[in-house]
Amino acid sequence: MSDFEKVTTGMGEECGVFGAYDMDGNDVASSIYYGLFALQHRGQESCGIAVTDTNGQRKVLSKKGLGLVNDVFDAEVLQSLKGNLGVGHVRYSTAGGTRVENAQPLVINYVKGTLAIAHNGNLVNAIELRKELEYTGAIFQTTIDSEVIAYHIARERLNVTTAEDAVKNAMMKIKGAYALVVSSPRKMIGARDPLGLKPLCIGKRDNTYFLASESCAIAAVNGEFVRDVLPGEIVSITKDGVDSDMSLAVSAEKQARCIFEYIYFARTDSTIDGVNVYHSRIVAGKALAESYPVEADLVVGVPDSGLVAAKGYSEQSGIPYGMAFHKNSYVGRTFIKPTQSARETSVKIKLNVIEEVVKGKRIIMVDDSIVRGTTCANIIKMLKKAGATEVHVRISSPPFLYPCYFGTDVPSNEQLIAHSHTTDQIRELIGADSLGYMEVDKLKNMVGDLKFCDACFTGNYPMEVPNEDISQAFE
Length: 475
What we know:
Layout: E1 16-22, H1 29-38, E2 46-52, E3 60-66, H2 69-72, H3 75-80, E4 85-91, E5 106-110, E6 113-123, H4 126-135, H5 146-157, H6 163-173, E7 176-184, E8 187-192, E9 201-205, E10 208-212, H7 215-220, E11 224-228, E12 234-238, E13 241-245, E14 257-258, H8 260-265, E15 271-272, E16 275-276, H9 277-291, E17 298-301, H10 305-317, E18 321-322, E19 325-327, H11 341-350, E20 351-353, H12 355-358, E21 362-367, H13 374-385, E22 390-395, H14 417-420, H15 423-430, E23 434-437, H16 444-447, E24 452-453, H17 455-458
Parallel strand pairs: 14-24, 17-18, 17-21, 21-22, 22-23
Antiparallel strand pairs: 1-4, 1-10, 2-3, 2-4, 5-6, 6-7, 7-8, 8-12, 9-10, 9-11, 12-13, 15-16, 19-20
Helix pairs in contact: 5-6, 9-10
């Protein structure tokens, strides 16, 4: 990790990927910038854009840095990134530390030209693949598994006639969760892991095609949502339009989308695989109200992902919905924390309780998760200090009991409060008057017929997972 520690409110994010290809030859850097801006919630540690001109010299121009999208890019930088095909990335480190070499997109120069690659997800066999590559002479510049994917694509490209086939051959070797956006000299390629763990979709504006982690990013560039890239699908976007290869797809029964996209990660205005995120959070809140009714005066949500679930709880229970918190939007997820005591104030910097709203009231507080318990305890303390007479906590996910190997920053078992405490012990530790978690068997109501992965709650992993913590492996 970097010299300063991270302070995060609960869960870490995944990453966000965005690609653009303007068939008319116009520069795409500013569109990628706005697309990444809309995906900023998916990663706030580093970001990058790499572009190429499909009609000119076809060299890749790129800019990457640590920090938020608007810290790393300004008008001058965007102006200098000339090219009509490009990929962008926002990153939250799930594997590999926070350093600028680990920022994406990764740009690889090799015999057949140049590839730029942006990856969201985590591989479960990255360690073996990396060792195998190192023994055949590969020299790694980063500590992220995305570089393993990039090497495999470049290596496979020497044996096949198209970049799509190189991506396909690489996909046959890698195991885990991934959404990839790759730019080769004259193509934009998108690929999604066969289980569909990570989201990816296609958009279009006039003669420009987009690939994005979420539909909200396509809306941000005034694009029209075309469709989701299907689990296991490789799409190739060229001057001739969109080609699709479904040869690596598995049956719908085996698919396993990450349920956390719907509970927490995705932006409320996104739709993933036909399921609207706002709707799924309303459903979650209603399920909590059915499972854990309680007499109270007001339902409030913890910003941001708890707000919609709180609305659902209020609608189902008939208890009024209120805004109890002011959120400071100008604080990134990560900031320098000079002393231990600052950990306590970190919540106050981001959230303030509106005393007027909660004073003298029995509050139902809805949040998306409890990871270590410290954030939740601090918020309850703030509510009671502001005069709330009771605080009943409702969580729109089941308790975290198992680590995630697919790119969600759920810490190891020892750090998960639910792993070593009963619900009643957790209630006592956080200072709540009552505590109710989403029931595992009600998760399916959030996503209709979609098959999903809930391994962090149940331990039922959709594939074999390593028995070591892969996030530290390359450090």
